[in-house]
Amino acid sequence: xxxxxxxxxxxPAPARAHARHAASDTDCDAFIRDLYDQYGPLLVRYAARLxxxxxxxxxxxxxxxxxxxxxxxxxxxxxxxxxxxxxxxxVRNLVIDHHRARQIRPLELMPTEELDAAWDxxxxxxxxxxxxxxxxxxxxxxxxxxxxxYYLECSVAQAAEYLGIPPGTxxxxxxxxxxxxxxxxxxxxxxxx
Length: 193
Known about the structure:
- There is one protein chain.
- The chain is mostly helical.
- The protein has helices at 7-10, 13-50, 55-71, 73-76, 83-104, 122-137, 140-151, 156-163, 167-187.
- It is built from nine helices and no strands.
- Helix 2 (13-50) runs antiparallel to helix 3.
- The chain is elongated.
- The model is unreliable at 1-23 (pLDDT under 50).
């Protein structure tokens, strides 16, 4: 007040807020890096176990967990002893949400003939027709397993649940289906022997 200005008063409020925000973003980024380093592998294994071995979905769950941790980084704190249980609870809740969503929206199968095989050039279109012909030569069980695992990208556990058979049976059917499909494509000259 007597001719000198305090530096904190002289700095405009938006600039102080921006500096705090930039510092907190850096802290949050470091927090997330530490979270991935320290808990990432544990959380993915835990999620995969809850998801019957679906590692891709487990990685998605880890990313969503990290996003939620990032949103709550100020409250969790980097050295909090409560972060581990909180992370595992979030993973568990996300997996439960996933299972509930699968029950509400069950897996839908479409006939092999309706799969979109329209590509840009004629050669790939002809190849797709030959593949569809080879698929028609397979028995219904083999076609269904290929459709679930390769077209709809279901995990073995998801396909087993949908078909109501053990995962080992799904793996066996997939193996024999792919072998029969490969043989059919070799006979048609699509792939070399």
